[in-house]
Amino acid sequence: MITPDLNVGGNDGGDTLSLAERRPRRQNRQLPKRFRDILPLPPPTAPLGVSPAASVSHEEVSSRSPILSLPSVFRTPSNIFGLVRQYFTSTPPTHDPEEYVTLTDLSFILGNSHEEPDLPTTSGSDAQYHPYPNRSSFQLGEWYWNQGVQKSQSDYMKLLKILGDTSVDTTDVSSTRWKKINSHLGINEYNDKDGEEWEDEDAGWKRTPVSIQVPFSRTSEAPGARLYQAADLYHHSLVAVIWEKLANERDNKLFHYEPYQLRWSPPHLDTEVAIYGDLYTSPAFHDAHMELQNSPGEANCDLPRVVAGIMFWSDATQLTSFGNAKLWPTYMYFGNESKYRRCKPSCNLSNHVAYFEMLPDSFKDFTGGRGMTSECATHCHRELFHEQWNILLDDKFLEVYEHGIVILCCDGIARRFYPRIFTYSADYPEKVLIATVRNLGGCPCPRCLIPKDRLQNMGRPQDRTQRESLARSNDKRRTMVSTAQSLIYEKNYTVGSAPVEQILKSQSWVPTSNAFLDRLGPLGFNIFHALVVDLLHEFEIGVWKMLFVHLLRILVAQDKTLIHELDRRYRQVPTFGPATIRKFSSNSSGMKRMAARNFEDLLQCSIPVFDGLLPEPHNSFVLHLLFTMAHWHGLAKLQMHSDWTLDIMDQVTSAVGQQLRDFKATVCSAYVTHELHQEVEARTRRSAKQAVAQIGKHSSSGYRAAESHSSPKNAQRTKTFNLQTYKFHALGDYVSTIRRYGTSDSYSSEPGELEHRSPKSRYRRTDRKSFVKQLTQIERRQARIHCIGDKMITELAKSPHAHHHIGATQKFPVHIGDPAIKNFVVKLKSHLLKRIHALSGSEDNDDINTVILKDDRMYRHNVAVFNYTTYDVRRAQDVINPRTSHCNVMVLRSAYDVVHEGHNFIYGKVLGIYHANVIYTGSGMVNYTPVRMEFLWVRWYEPMVQASSWETSTLDRVRFLPINDQYSFDFLDPSDVLRGCHLIPSFEKGKRHAGGPGVSGCAGDKDDWREYFVNRFVDRDMLMRFHFGLGVGHVYSHYRSTPADLLPEGNTQCIPEDDADVDGDTDDYDSESQEDDDGTSRVEVVGERFGDSNESLSEQFDEMYGSDIDLDYEN
Fold first, then answer.
1. Are 339 and 224 contacting, i.e. CB atoms less than 8 angstroms apart?
2. For residue range 655-696, what is the model confidence (pLDDT) as tens digits?
């Protein structure tokens, strides 16, 4: 143990006491809250018994969200992050899911164990495994059905673990009747009743025939409507799904029966603001809950009434990479559950409620070409879709929707549940199908009636007004559609005839009955409000892809070689995180087989790549536009919003609209742009395919026509930048949608895209014939096996508590007696001595010779793992590896740095990760037990003179200090690291040693670039660190600042200035003593700037805040 000489307060006998036996100069020393790594906590729990003082009047709480007035509210105490839960009732909830949330639930970290949870070694009766006869058979069945189709080496090891269990009886396994069990597990309601039935009540699959009326026009041989049985719909009963969900003990404890409003009241803001995240904390859920509570109850029923929030996803998908096997699944989620669990496919919270059918090929045989136009075929497709929804929204569901359903919950309390549909997530072609709106018509938006020629006004004040005044409603639509249908079905007009078009075309309606409006409209449901925004399709592969493609056209118009330079730059962008920024393909401009995440990466790294490719002033304009686009995208993807961040996003939305219009007017008009090579090829293939379909697929003339269409005559067509698109128009709805339903990740189409993996993997287990029926059976097997396992499986504990982790191995010793690194040792001992003084509270001895490294060795480690609390109060992790591009870290800037104003962080490249066994031999030592001390060897970056900010729309730029600078290299306490950071080279500036060997092999400076960009858009947490003070989980930023530090240009919201710290301490250091003389050199300033070994960060923090609390580096 280190036992320095502490002569504090004149204590007698102090020279003979060890460190553990002494009282330091300052008791309970601890880093101030601003600089500590605060572990994430769930929102404060609501105790069951609370005194009336916990309730406050509604008028005391202000909110920008519309809420129904009540006489009182119940508020929980705030937690360390300033979060408060507010219930609009005078009593706390009877069931509080936040009580069961652990740090593991709040963590994105995999944990120490990657093993699957084990079944208890001791089991009860074999009846609990029914229909499996025993535990051994169940384990093998669970391994086969629920451990994936493609068995990996990990799955093989799990199989060996099952077979190697001492409780496994091979006789029991060999005698198991597997085929009968699998058949029994896959029983559904459509099976013949003579077979065995599933004894537990669950949402089995049904099979219902679907029929539609096909209209034949007056020009056909036999005009009039004919009944056509299109297909069999495989579906669940929605009521049965709700019943099965609420009877599930595994999910019950985390199911929110009562909504609440999450509010944020940090010490650096004068006003309490609303927090937007999950659906059950949104104004939409709250309004539905209050409307239900204020409505007349059921006769002779005083049970608690609960809203069951329903969220739908649907999207057709290809089941194989090759072939034409398709599936159109519909998924249902519950908004009462946390979105962090809903969006994880491994949590199995998605309910497959239906597999929709499309018009079969036999439909052409039914029509026989008799008066059937393409418009009529499209009409029949819409009719089939809504007829299937009529089956799902059956009379039983309508009864439950209006009167509720009584369910005895797992906590022993009977409640009456009322289903309410809040959101329906789909891409644009399906949105217009759901809304019964014409695809890309004159009014293409499924939510409003803004005409197509006004879509480019997104972000302007008149556009905001028109979105509300021209919102779609069913009032006028009902009459218009009814009139059009009478023309089609009674007077036998064609669907696309002039009389029908005259009625519907002006507002882009179609003559199809809408199942949602017809069935649920009388009960107050509006499907147009439920069609929420979709960031994946509307922006990432929508507006941003459109802009990226046109920028490529401009580069080709400027110089064809610029495309190759752009691809070269993207290839050199370093990766970041496990999958945050992936390695770019060799040909990014080709955009081959790119998903939305690939386009997201292109945007996040676009500024350094496009820098300098175009001449001025177009270069600056494009960089400014890319900055605004990346900023908007980062804000739109935030998983936790506040009123402050939504105000910022509202302004950035207006900026996106204005800058894109200016881009079209100034930059695009300066270039004559044509189709890219890949666009020409794609158009040629489409033309050839259409020619084959029109002239005859198997005729020789058809193939000759295809060849004539594929000839490259006039290959490249002129292309212009088009802003009159629905996807651009949809950007204006994001702020209002987030304020209404919570953050976009809760209802994005991305969870539905991820869930497509389930039917695709199940398809491989089918025989490819009548696979839809087999998919329903496999789904039931897996769900029922999960249900059996839930009764016995307990989750393993995972521990993401530590701030960082550096391995304990000593396999890679570095002998530091080498005279070549003599100065290295001096700096290291000085660094360690300062840390020892900070721990002990003593600064009496500055002799570095009192620090001894045992055996003159330190031990190298390959990686260091840093855990940190994100802006949305979750736990995340960065892995630092000096041998890869994941070697850069960021540290909070010390207040002693008065030179580089505007920079809140400093950055360093980790050259080595070490620990050493340190012995301190200062006065008062009584033993020489070595203590392990960890440290990082860092090469510092220095910020450029230019201070970047949101107002300038530029990224921060940094560069390495010169190699011979005495402050270029230093040691850093791992506890001071905030997280890893993403630095992208400034390709336009070039390398520092182009083609040269560099100066230092240890520093690896041969690959240094002259400048680097700090990528503040690399992920959402990084974005909020640059919105200093607005990240709920970034406690270090919760102190008084100026409005310019928080808000972009144009925001007039004011945050009063105050020097008070979050802990109530004040910065009482003498600011005059920090002023530099005119003769101060840059090197001296940098020394103070980066907190070198001569003055440790912990000491600076201690002096700044005068803390009297114990320094606790772990917590």
1. no
2. 999 999 999 999 999 999 999 999 999 898 888 888 876 665
Average pLDDT estimate for 422-447: 96
Contact predicate 540/599, CB 8 Å? yes
How far is the CA of 278 from the CAs of 352, 383, 743, 942, 952, in angstroms? 22, 34, 7, 40, 33
List, for residues 295-309, the tens digit of each pLDDT value.
Answer: 999 999 999 999 999
Is it true that the peptide bond before 77 is cis, omega within 30 degrees of 0?
A: no
For a pLDDT cut of 70, what percent of the chain falls above it? 79
Q: Could you please report the per-residue DSSP string of 437-488?
A: B-TT-SS--SSB---GGGGGGTTSHHHHHHHHHTB--HHHHHHHHHHHHHHH
Over residues 632-666, the pLDDT tens digits come to 999 999 999 999 999 999 999 999 999 999 999 99
- Count CB atoms within 10 A of the CB of residue 954: 17
Backbone torsions φ then ψ of 953, nearest 5 degrees: 55, 45
With a CB cutoff of 8 Å and minimum separation 6, the contacts of 1008 are 960, 991, 992, 993, 998
Out of 317-321, 365-369, 825-829, least confident range: 365-369
> Which pair of structure tokens corresponds to residue 775?
């998919």
Burial of 170 (0-12, 13-18, 19+ CB in 10 A): exposed
Residue 526: exposure state from Cβ atoms within 10 A (0-12, 13-18, ≥19): middle
- Per DSSP bridges, beta strands 957-960 and 1012-1014 are antiparallel
pTM listed for this prediction: 0.85
User: Which residue has 């005859």 as its token pair?
Assistant: 696
Cα dist. 960→395, 496, 968 in Å? 70, 68, 8
Higher pLDDT, 84 or 44: 84
> Could you report how far apart the first and last alpha carbons of the chain are, in Å?
21
Span 270-274, average pLDDT: 91
User: What are the DSSP E strand ranges found in 519-560?
Assistant: none
DSSP state for residue 799 in the 8-state scheme: -
Strand 414-425 with 305-314, pairing: parallel
At residue 11, what is the residue type? N
Q: Does 587 score more than 80 pLDDT?
A: yes
Closest CA to 959 of 949, 977, 946, 972: 946
Alpha carbon dihedral 12, 16, 22, 26, in 10-degree steps, equals 70
915 pLDDT more than 80: yes
pLDDT of residue 198: 53
Determine the 3-state secondary structure of 102 from DSSP.
coil
Residue 551 belongs to what H/E stretch? Answer: helix 544-558
Report the C-alpha gap between 424 and 430 in whole angstroms: 10
| 273-276 and 305-314 strand pairing | unpaired
Give whichever of 95-99, 646-650, 834-838, 902-906 has the largest mean pLDDT.
646-650
Least reliable range by pLDDT among 67-81, 565-579, 672-686, 963-977: 67-81
CA distances from 52 to 76, 82, 89, 1103 (A): 12, 22, 12, 43
Q: Which of 296, 391, 401, 407 is nearest to 353 (CA)?
A: 391
Amino acid at 548: F
Cα separation of 305 and 947, whole Å?
A: 56
With vertex at residue 143, the alpha carbon angle to CA 139 and CA 147, rounded to the nearest 5 degrees, is 150
Q: What's the pLDDT score for residue 1102?
A: 41
DSSP string spanning 803-815? SEEE----SSEEE
Q: Is 1036 left (phi over 0), alpha (psi -120 to 50) or beta?
A: alpha
Greatest alpha-carbon pair distance for the chain in Å reads: 115
